[in-house]
Model the fold of this input.
Amino acid sequence: MSHKPAGVVSGTTVIVPHWNRRDLLERVLEQLRSQTCPVEEILVVDNGSQDGSVELAKSKGARVIALERNIGFSGAVNRGIREARTDCVAILNNDVELQPDWLERLRKALEEPGVFFATGKLLNAARPEWLDATYDTVSRGACPWRAGHGRRDGPEWSRPRRIRMAPFTAALFRAELFRKVGLLDERFESYLEDVDFGLRCAMQGYTGMYVPEAVGRHIGSATLGRWHKETVRLNARNQVLLVAKHYPGRYLRRYAWPILVGQSLWGLLALRHGRGIAYLRGKLQGLALARRVRREVVRAGGWPRGLSRIVEQSEAEIFELQRRTGFDSYWRAYFRLT
Done:
């Protein structure tokens, strides 16, 4: 670990952003107490729950930041990061079930030189032989794939590897990384904020590790649901924000077709789930914000170099993983068209 600034102590703070679902919070707090690696502090950032979650968290020994309203996942995580005083910070969704050695294995990974974050293997809680997630990748079209999602677990997903992006569903970070790269962009509210953060890390040369032995089970979108209209709206909007924030004009021209194909195909999936209106609302909101976002990037000094290499290598990884484990319909169509 690098030198710690004054006030920072060794240990791990686990930040649990939360909104209602008291039952999930109770379970995750009990699991954290049984980790083989001690947790310095559990910090629950409550987004205005109305179901007794705050009182429950306090009774279980967690420190609670009780917000008056729901400020979104990004805002809640940032509040927690600002309050943390340990050299490592874990971000954990309330709908994740962890094996007892999850934190111990990730802490060990962070001892390796040049490893600034680590994430493990998340299985589907309802079907544990199937994967929910491993690590994140992203296409030229600014559409991410949570590698392995919906695949049967197997050797492909059981090898440790260097990664550029970790899902904030369940991951461990060196606290210094947030001082180097910055906090989550709260304009994203919820969804793709971790992809934005991962791109910023990658462009500044900070990488992490995928640790398949660190295992958890994920219910997935337990608060709203994967195809809830708000989930679709935010994903559709934030796909546009990723492009606006990270793609300079020359890349907009170079990747115009993959952007159009990738985001349109995702819209067809939303339409198939009866969420076409939510998708269109999100795109319109994203376009309305895009000009302001791009002006802010210009005022801050412009776009950093290196994006094309990152997204092209990441897309190549998506193709290889899909080829080896079986193409799903979205990526088969995307690669045929692009």
